[in-house]
Write a structure and sequence with these properties.
Number of domains of chain B: 2
Number of helices of chain B: 10
Distance between the termini of chain A: 74 Å
Oligomer: heterodimer
Helix content of chain B: over 70%
Radius of gyration of chain B: 24 Å
Strand order of the largest sheet of chain B: 1-3-2
CATH class of chain A: Mainly Alpha
Strand content of chain B: 5-15%
Number of strands of chain B: 3
Radius of gyration of chain A: 20 Å
Largest interface: A-B, 86 and 89 residues
CATH topology of chain A: Arp2/3 complex 21 kDa subunit ARPC3
Shape of chain A: globular
Largest sheet of chain B: 3 strands, antiparallel
Helix content of chain A: over 70%
Number of domains of chain A: 1
Number of helices of chain A: 10
Strand content of chain A: under 5%
Order of helices and strands of chain B: HHHHHEEEHHHHH
Chain lengths: 249, 257
């Protein structure tokens, strides 16, 4: 091999390695350091009332039954693990589910807000998904806005006696989509477009992330349905213990 | 199973006072985000890299791989920042599409570069903390910051359970794979869902057993762990103070001009 050929080979290997490392599509955590300081603080402040509500509800739950603390902690660990595992995807890139829709359906949005911020903190530190400065913004989109919508849709479907599978699917699917929309809007507000302002910028962010996030939301919906259905057929006593079945029937 | 968690236990800086590492990385991180200057980003990135790889003895190849984790987010969102669709072409480039232009200005290109620099430097701050501090030390720092007790306890328990559940999940997935559980897309989605359900059921069962075990060992709502105390060295504190003052100086100087 001549020197030139060697160089070409090395360059092509480097190029290939670069692409081998990259395709990790996460559930759209805003990365560390990506938001300006004032937006970091603002989103953090917006989260506070929701977190306080979640904290009080958790405290009550634990005071009523001390045993529930291990259950709640297990739920948190479950959300972390399920969101850190690769889910099957059509394109071959590796993607992860958020798991917060499932959590909201099973444990209610109040508990998920606190579990969500803990999981996001762990994800930032252990997996570098998200970050410490963007914790507020990520908490709002993933642990508050998404789960709240999931829960509301699930309850609404329950009221109108929609098929259970359909309602679980809709709750998880729309919750995931909502998270993705909120994140896009958060990014757009921080980085308004020079041509068209924040509105145009939101459209751009939505468009850029759509190819990865839309299929992800559908798969998340399907997975949540399978998990809930399997839980209902195999783990009725456990579901009663967390107050899921009693509410549903 | 989680690479970062394994690496931090063999880091050369593991026994340095945790509060010191925490303060160093958080303040540096804040300077990166607040100043948004490429100079500070460069300095922080270099110092964090040096500390993590040389002092912490974290393998360079692994460090590079870890830095690439948020890469796809970075590329996609920066693309959204620097690419515009508008009726008027901007100064850097403009590709006509019908009656519109796909266009961008030099200012936004510079801004994009600045954004990438800041984000990468911030990630390196985060990695300095997580690759050199064990989670228990980190939680100890949070406790010193008067994080509410219930939260502390939940975090400690969740951290323990993560590994238990991960092991269970990977065992289930291995047995699913060995039984053609992911022979095509449909089956693999079904398998993943079933794994999730099985995992959750096991988690619930285990949480009951665990509570009983804890209670039989006099659990009264608080887990007390003996902490190893590594006091901060004067020299290190001085070095951190000087470094942060330099960053402060650069920030003020950049804002002045």
């Amino acid at each position: 091999m001549s020197k030139k050929e060697k160089l070409l080979l090395k360059a092509s290997i480097a190029f290939a390695v670069m692409f081998a490392v990259t395709p990790a599509v996460n559930a759209m955590h805003i990365m560390e350091g990506y938001l300006p300081a004032k937006y970091c603080i603002a989103w953090g402040v917006i989260c506070v009332p929701f977190l306080a509500a979640g904290f009080i509800s958790l405290k009550k739950k634990i005071a009523a039954n001390r045993k529930s603390i291990t259950l709640i902690a297990m739920a948190g660990a479950f959300i972390f693990v399920i969101s850190s595992l690769k889910i099957p995807s059509v394109t071959g890139s590796c993607s992860h589910m958020t798991g917060t829709g499932l959590g909201a359906i099973l444990f209610g949005p109040a508990a998920v807000s606190i579990l969500g911020i803990i999981v996001l903190l762990f994800q930032a530190i252990l997996l570098a998904h998200g970050g410490l400065t963007t914790l507020g913004a990520n908490t709002f989109s993933m642990a508050i806005a998404g789960p709240l919508l999931s829960f509301a849709i699930y309850k609404l479907c329950g009221k109108f006696k929609v098929n259970r599978k359909v309602s679980v699917f809709l709750a998880a699917f729309l919750g995931d989509l909502f998270t993705y929309c909120v994140t896009s809007i958060q990014l757009a507000m921080a980085y308004p477009s020079e041509a068209g302002g924040a509105g145009a910028s939101a459209v751009k962010f939505l468009g850029v992330f759509a190819p990865t996030q839309l299929p992800l939301a559908v798969i998340e919906g399907i997975l949540t349905v399978i998990i809930i259905m399997a839980m209902e057929s195999y783990a009725k006593p456990e579901l009663k213990a967390i107050g899921f079945l009693k509410e549903a029937k | 199973m989680i690479v970062v968690d394994k690496l931090c236990y063999r880091s050369g800086l593991r026994y340095v006072n945790a509060a010191e590492k925490f303060i160093f990385s958080i303040i540096t991180l804040l300077f990166c985000v607040v100043s948004r200057s490429l100079v500070i980003a460069g300095i922080a990135f270099a110092i964090n890299g040096w500390l993590t790889m040389k002092k912490g003895r974290i393998p360079g190849a692994l460090y590079a791989k870890l830095l690439a984790v948020p890469f796809s987010f970075l590329i996609l969102s920066t693309l959204a920042v620097i690419v515009n669709v508008s009726k008027v072409p901007l100064d850097a480039y403009a590709i006509p599409v019908g009656s519109f232009f796909i266009t961008g200005s030099f200012q936004s290109m510079m801004f994009g570069v600045q954004l990438i620099g800041t984000a990468m430097a911030s990630v390196s701050c985060l990695y300095f903390l997580s690759l050199n501090t064990t989670m228990t030390d980190f939680l100890g720092v949070l406790a010193k910051l008067h994080c509410p007790e219930i939260l502390m306890e939940l975090m400690l328990l969740i951290y323990r359970f993560i590994f238990v559940l991960m092991e269970t999940a990977s065992a289930i997935m291995v047995s699913q794979k060995s039984r053609l559980g992911n022979k095509d897309f449909r089956t693999s989605v079904d398998s993943f869902g079933k794994m999730g359900a099985g995992l959750l059921i096991r988690a619930f069962k285990r949480s009951n057993a665990l509570y009983d075990a804890m209670e039989s060992r006099c659990y009264d709502g608080k887990i007390r762990v003996l902490e190893e105390n590594h006091s901060a060295k004067r020299k290190e504190i001085a070095a951190i103070a000087v470094f942060e003052l330099v960053l402060l100086g650069i920030t003020v100087w950049r804002k002045m001009i």
